[in-house]
Give the backbone structure.
Amino acid sequence: MGQLENKTALITGGTTGIGFATAQRFVEEGAQVFITGRREPELNAAVAALGDRASGIRGDVSDLDDLDRIFSVVASAGKDLDVLFVNAGGGGFATLEQLTPEAFDQTFGVNVRGTVFTVQKALPMLADHASVIITGSNASSKGNPAFGVYAATKAALRSFTRTWAAELAGRHIRVNTIAPGPTDTPGLSGLAPDPSQAQGMLDTMAGNVPLGRLARPAEIANAVLFLASDQASYVTGTELFADGGETQV
Ligand SMILES: NC(=O)c1ccc[n+]([C@@H]2O[C@H](COP(=O)([O-])OP(=O)(O)OC[C@H]3O[C@@H](n4cnc5c(N)ncnc54)[C@H](OP(=O)(O)O)[C@@H]3O)[C@@H](O)[C@H]2O)c1
């Protein structure tokens, strides 16, 4: 018997990286999984790899019409959501001096606005005792130069986690943040200014982690599974760091 047998989960940004690894883990544990992403080929490839317990819905989480469409597809399946993993997001490097209003709006639009309205629109579909997991970042607890806007978006999500945990406790819905450290995904390599510099950037990041390496996406997925499962039945409002100790020691 899997830990998520007979459960239905929605994972935003489930086509690559942490979201895809989590979709794989959830399917292994018996869940029916909906995944979202903007790029159709990546979405189709991910669904094909996950097998017949997975469905894909294309959409941009910063677009409210897309969110409505995503939830109407989920609703048409006729099942409440037991797990909502709000994971779509990303960012880029810019110092305060380099920052443009467009980059600020784009990062807050996807990471904060996208997350807030994903959770709001999911509310009618969340089962009692559901688990909501928000992808934060350990970057929100640090002062990495040129990562301020991204870090601030994730700090906002950590704050919303506390409020939503309180607001939804009456429905026995738990809300938690997962805070990954540097994790080997296309999103992380994509932060390098050009591909030839990616390995050097990843090596430097790994060197800052006490465990001396990047996380594998599957390791973050295991921590998300814990928060999604009944093993975390008394855990709400918290931030679980899966960061190799980077912000802890
Ligand atoms: N990798 C790390 O080191 C790390 C560390 C801490 C936190 N995180 C967080 O973990 C989450 C996943 O990142 P990742 O590293 O796994 O990156 P990734 O491999 O680039 O995956 C990002 C996923 O989100 C989707 N996505 C991005 N923007 C979207 C949008 N506006 N609407 C809908 N889907 C969108 C992507 O698909 P499309 O591009 O096709 O839309 C993809 O499925 C992000 O929230 C990121 O901030 C990552």
